[in-house]
Specification:
The complex is a heterodimer of chains A (254) and B (264). With 254 residues, chain A is mostly helical. In chain B, 37% of the residues lie in helices and 24% in strands. In chain B, the strands form two sheets. Chain B has a six-stranded mixed β-sheet with strand order 6-7-8-3-9-10, sandwiched between helices. In chain B, helix 2 crosses helix 3. Classes of the chains: A mainly alpha (254), B alpha/beta (264).
């Protein structure tokens, strides 16, 4: 299917949804207090941006997100490469990492607050914990699945273990690493919102919590949309990079 | 003497605790500038001997000497050409030819670029420098593999069934090309193949191997004049050699096909 056609059909669904939503209240299907209306949400959004408040919170949130996310890339990629390449570190760390991986991050929130304090630290930590695993796991699997023949080729030219990392394992695992990063972005944003909702004095998540508790539905929905737009934007950007790479380097068999 | 195999035996451990002898007491001396082909049925351990000569595999018993020095690890003086090409799919033709040079750490970047350009042209890939392996045919990919090996200016070229993955016509053309390139500076070549014609056409000497365990069955000197064109395949001497090797291997292959196991 053509890209344009896909956009058009998808766009139609969005417009239809907004129209139904707008009409739902006057038609008496729902109470406006529960779900608001697109026009009210838009008005709330304009109001939030006019005071500039939302930008301050967005800035805090993005800062927490990027610090936590950068940390998860810095830790996840090298650790993933090592776990994908060497047997014993993998056997050693696998049970621990899997246990940590399968623990819901939300359940760890109180612990993180105790450890890092309310606000910044705890949120950065939960973003990190959310994003690091998909990055780590995808990197490790990507490295493990690289054809050994490439490693043998580098060896045969007298290459060192270091050469194998820089010339085969890292470049060879770029597509799965980027896939891991894309999945990590989603988890990171989730972590950011959850962290701020649980324990923070500022940030988008904290604002969501605040307006939610005040039953200020239009503002609440506006904020939720900001978060979802943010995630959509990041993921789309990474998708773009992914597609470029896929086009450039299709694997060759014999 | 350029390469010397002394009583080389390679055994691989098996899951049941025993070991499988791939090659037994392999003896061979290769002179500088000599083109030696090793031909044998599948499973005779001929590729194993190349890995041993390269230093990627340590023999269970015996030694390999290169220029009178014991081979213990791969070195840039011996370059391997793989049956599966082993080109890095994320690198262009240029990038792949560059690989060996980068690992050698001997040249400046501008020297490396010049060498890459030279060898890309030598193997007839001019105009394809920016192509990725998946955009090339099998024959072109192996040209890249050959250029990559030649670029490091090795003393010895180790070729592991390099044309086995190619179709028959491409294979013929590639072997003719290989001889053309080899005639330029006559490197020592160890060329493993299961193609009898290919083995005769290329070689100064042919090592015929038997299987299970792999042993040298016969070493045959090829007296055909050089340079050789593909037309030499109609020469009576060529036909005779081909038939002779076929007879040697036929028994081997029969044994394998009939599943009667070990040679008597």
């Amino acid at each position: 299917m053509k890209k344009q056609q896909r956009l058009w059909i998808g766009g139609l669904a969005v417009i239809l949804f907004l129209a139904l939503w707008e009409a739902a209240m006057p038609l008496g299907w729902v109470k406006v207090a529960d779900v608001s209306r697109p026009t009210l949400v838009a008005k709330a959004f304009v109001e939030l941006t006019r005071t500039g408040d939302i930008f301050r919170h967005l800035f805090v949130s993005l800062q927490e997100f990027f610090i936590g996310f950068a940390l998860s890339v810095v830790v996840g990629v090298p650790l993933g490469v090592v776990l994908g390449r060497y047997r014993y570190p993998f056997l050693l760390l696998d049970p621990l990492l899997m246990a940590l991986y399968s623990t819901p991050r939300v359940a760890m929130m109180p612990l993180l607050v105790v450890a890092f304090g309310v606000g910044y630290g705890a949120t950065v930590a939960v973003v990190f914990l959310g994003a690091v695993f998909p990055i780590l796991v995808n990197t490790a699997v990507g490295v493990r699945e690289i054809d050994r023949i490439y490693i043998r080729a580098v060896h045969s030219f007298g290459g060192t273990e270091r050469d194998i990392f820089t010339k085969v394992l890292l470049p060879g695992a770029v597509p799965p690493i980027i896939t891991g990063i894309r999945l990590g972005v989603g988890r990171g944003i989730l972590g950011m919102v959850v962290g701020e909702m649980y324990a923070a004095t500022e940030g988008i998540g904290q604002q969501i919590s605040l307006y939610g508790n005040a039953f200020a539905v239009p503002e609440l929905i506006a904020l939720i949309l900001v978060v979802s737009l943010l995630g959509f934007l990041f993921v789309s950007l990474i998708r773009l990079v992914e597609d470029r790479l896929r086009y450039r380097r299709m694997e060759t068999e014999a | 003497m350029h390469i010397e195999f002394k009583q080389v035996t390679v055994a691989f451990p098996q899951p049941d605790g025993g070991s499988l002898i791939a090659v037994e007491n392999f003896d061979l001396q290769v002179d500088k500038g000599e083109f030696v082909t090793i031909v044998g049925p599948s499973g005779c351990g001929k590729s194993t001997m190349l890995l041993v000569a390269d230093g990627l595999l340590r023999p269970t018993q015996g030694q390999v000497f290169f220029e009178n020095k014991l081979v213990t690890a791969p070195g840039p003086d011996r370059a391997l050409v793989f049956q599966e090409f082993a080109l890095l799919p994320w690198r262009t033709v240029e990038g792949n030819v560059m690989l060996g040079l980068e690992l050698q750490r001997k040249h400046t970047p501008s020297q490396m670029r010049e060498l890459v350009e030279h060898f890309v042209q030598l193997v007839g890939l001019r105009g394809f420098e920016r192509h990725f392996p998946h955009q090339l045919s099998g024959g072109m990919r192996q040209r890249v593999g050959l250029a990559r090996a030649l670029a490091v200016n090795p003393a010895v070229l180790l070729m592991d069934e390099p044309f086995a993955a190619l179709d028959a016509q491409t294979r013929e053309i590639m072997s003719e090309e290989l001889l053309r390139i080899w005639e330029e500076d006559k490197k020592t070549v160890l060329f493993v193949t299961h193609g009898i014609e290919e083995a005769v056409y290329l070689a100064d000497r042919i090592v015929v191997m038997s299987s299970q365990p792999g042993q040298v069955k016969e070493v045959i000197r090829v007296g055909l004049p050089r340079p050789r064109s593909l037309a030499i395949k109609d020469d009576p001497e060529f036909v005779h050699l081909r038939r002779h090797i076929w007879n040697l291997l036929m028994k081997e292959v029969r044994w394998q096909v009939d599943g009667r196991g070990k040679n008597p």
